[in-house]
Amino acid sequence: MEEIKNVQDKIARLKKEKGDRAFVININNRNKKGKVVVGMSGGVDSSVAAYLLKEQGYDVIGVTMQIWQDEEYDTQAHNGGCCGLSAVDDARRVADQIGIPYYVMNFKAPFKEKVIDYFISEYQCGRTPNPCIACNRYVKWESLLSRSLEIGADYIATGHYARVEKLENGRFSVLKSVTEEKDQTYALYNLTQEQLKRTLMPIGKYSKNEVRDIAKKAGLIIASKPDSQDICFVPDGKYGEFIKNNSPHDILPGNFVDREGNILGKHKGIVYYTVGQRKGLGIPAGDRLYVLEIRSETNEVVLGENKDLMWNNIVAKDFNFMSIEGLQDEMNVTAKIRYNHRGAKAVLRKRDDGHMECIFEEPQRAPTPGQALVCYDGNKVVGGGVII
C-alpha cells in the first residue's frame, strides 16, 4: 500500500508541475521494458540487435566504443574492424534509420591496458593470448556496463551469437547460439554473474542468414556488409611485427632447440611463434617440425614432431564458473581448447593447487598456453580458464 501511495503522490506532483501530459509520459515510460545500451560496431549483427530490441519495446541507445582510432581514416576504412572510424559512420547511420539516439564513448585507456598491453605481455612471456576474450570481459562489459549504468541504463546488449539465460539454480549462464558455426560463447566464458544479469543478446536465436534477412527487410544500409576479420588492432595479422613496433622491450633472436636441448637453428624472436606452428620456421629438416613449446626464460623455441603435440590432460588457471557456483566432484563436460575447436568429451576436476584439470577421452592437438579452456554442459557454459 505504501508503494502505491508513493506512485500516486509522484503522479499528482507531476500533474501539478507539468500538467496532464506528464501523466501520459509517465505511463508510457512504465510500459517500457527498460533502457538498454547496445554496443554498435557498424556491422550487421549489432545493428540487427539494436533493431530487434527497439521492436521489442526497449528504450534503446546506440553506442560505439572508441578504442583504436589512431590511424588515418582511409587506412581504417580499408582495414575495417569493429571500432574504427568507418564503423562509427555506419553505426551512426543505422541508428538514424532505426530512430535511436547514438553516441561514441572513449574507452581507449582500458582498451590499451586490458587488451593491447596484455596481448604484448603474454606473447613476450611465451604465451598466445586471445585478446577478444579480454576485450569482452574488461571493455565491452566491465567498462561499457559501468558507463551505461551511470546514464540510467538497465541493460547492455551486443550482437554476439550467444544467448543469456537464468537457470533453475538461480545462476545466469551463456548458452550456445542456435547455429554452431557462428557460436561465440567461447569468447564469453569469463563474464561475471552481475554482468550476465544485465546483458541481452537478441540475435543468439537466429542464423547469420536470418540476421541478414532481418536487416534487409528493415532496410538497414549495412545488410550486405561483410563480417570483420582478424584482431581489430592487427588487421594484417602480423602479430610479431605489431609487438616489435609497440613493445617497450627489444625482441631478441634466440635458438630453436629439440626436446633434448640440441640447437637446431636460430629464430627471430619468440613473439613470432605459437604452439603447433609449422610454417615460417625456416628450419631444413627431413621430418616436418612443429613448435612444441616456447621458453621465454631462455628465449628458446622447442621443435618436434606432430605426435609430440597430442595431450590428454590440460590444466587451466583463473577458472570462472558460470552455470554452476563451483566444482567439488568430477564433472563430465564437452571442452574446447581454442575458438575454432569443435569440442571433445572430457572430465573436469579441481586439483589440489586450485587449478582446474580437463582430462580428455581422446588426445587433443596443440593445447596452447594463454588460450582458453572452455567447458560445456550441453549448450550451457560451465566455465573456463586460461591454459597453463
Annotation, overall tally of beta strands:
17
- Global mean pLDDT: 88
CATH-defined topology of the domain at 33-159 and 202-217? Rossmann fold
Residue windows where pLDDT falls under 50 for at least 5 positions: 1-8, 20-31, 73-80
Number of distinct helices: 10
Q: In sequence order, what are the helices and strands, one letter per element?
A: HHEHEHHEHHEEEHEHHEEEEEEEEEE
Helix content: 25-40%
Class derived from helix and strand content: alpha/beta
Which overall shape is indicated by the principal axes computed on the Cα atoms? Answer: globular
* Percent in strands: 25-35%
CATH arch. level architecture of the domain at 33-159 and 202-217:
3-Layer(aba) Sandwich
Quaternary structure of the protein? single chain
Question: How many angstroms separate the termini?
Answer: 57 Å
| CATH uppermost class of the domain at 33-159 and 202-217 | Alpha Beta
Name of the CATH homologous superfamily of the domain at 33-159 and 202-217: HUPs
Largest sheet, in brief, is: 6 strands, antiparallel, barrel
Strands of the biggest beta sheet: in what spatial order? 12-15-14-13-16-17
Radius of gyration: 24 Å
